[in-house]
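The protein record filed here.
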Amino acid sequence: MRTSSRRTLEAAAAVLLSVALTAAATAQSPSTRARIGPTVGYLVYDSYFSGPGGLQFSNDNGMAYGGELAVTLGNNIEVVGNVLHATSDWSFQGIPLIGTVNVGGASLWFYDAGVRVRVPVGTSGVSPLVQLTAGAIRYSVDNALLTDRATNFTYSGGLGVEAQLNRRLSILALAKDYLASFRSVDQGAVLGIEGRRSHTLALEIGAGLGF
């Protein structure tokens, strides 16, 4: 993963954490049993596929958009469901005499659900959190070189912080790591392209409306 990508991720994490902590000045305790709201994120991709001669195939890092539903089960324990969608160029790395070539047409859907545990900090309304989820990544590519799709199971772990702004409105900053073992798309297999286990880092910020 490129150094510049790590620096971008770290800088964005610092900004999002600062926003969440600043919001704590007006934070209150929630009075709702469920929350729903939009999320926006920045994705940093690992190499999803490998090919002949040491070629690697991944996606250009970029933005993703989606939403989240969280339902409270008990004291500081929630069941959460999340969806993210991103489009990206498909990146071919390690091509002899050329290096890297980018081709458009890649689309990704991330679906996951699981358990989140929040740890409130006194009465501030700020809660560090940890979550574990599982789901699927739906990958498709459609361009002149290749048109195909694959769905792959994924695990995900996340760390973040949530700030309750008032009785119904909250904001969330979350860093997640999706781990998936990709199967090759069918047409890619004919060309010697194989799926590989890879990570996708997602840095998300979202708003929640309680009901």
